[in-house]
Amino acid sequence: MDVPKSVMVAYASLHGSTEEIAGFIAARLRRAGLRAQARRAGPAADPTGYAAVIVGSAVHHMDWMPQAEGYLHEHAQILARRPLWLFSVGLRDSLTGPIGRLLAAHYGEPRQIPDARHALAPRDHRVFSGVVAPDHYPPVGRLVVRAIGGRYGDFRDWDAIGAWTDSIACELTTPRHRRKTGLAGDADPGRDRRPSARHLGDRPDPRAHG
């Protein structure tokens, strides 16, 4: 009997929305027969010994949280040899009105993603919308939200998140993938690169906060 593959879902959350998405992803992977757990990006989320890794972060001013960016730097050697997926949680779907729709149309990837894509070759990166609440902003920030036509609410599309998670589970459980990557902790022989942190840009200041 085969041992189920193990998956680490590491995340950096600002107000809790990303944490809940990471937990949802891990639970759905477990229902698909994988051994998955969600951990805040840091020592508890060490990817050593895991067959695949998913890393997600809240987005603040089009940047990943420093903890998530630092996680990519610290574990670059391992992540480059594992099946890797990335996700970002922002506010795109909360933007309405003429200005908001214009901003949403140009809502691109966080600044860290191109470097991560070059250095780590993730299988995919997805942008999901999260929860937007008045207490997430100072008074001036709430005025800006109103001016650009922003809305408050829970904009997480659980169907889309679930479908993406299912595609990951399918890829990790197909016989072809199992033969290629082996069981938990085995490196993917097809991704034998040795990236350095410089390929991911400057290491973030650990004292910074989103």
TrEMBL record:
GO terms for molecular function: oxidoreductase activity. InterPro entries: Flavodoxin_dom, Flavoprotein-like_sf. It comes from the Bacteria. Residues 188-210 have a biased composition (Basic and acidic residues). Pfam families: Flavodoxin_5. This is Menaquinone-dependent protoporphyrinogen oxidase. Keywords: Oxidoreductase. The keyword Oxidoreductase applies. It is an enzyme of class 1 (oxidoreductase). Its EC number is 1.3.5.3. Residues 179-210 are annotated as: Disordered. Residues 8-148 form the Flavodoxin domain.
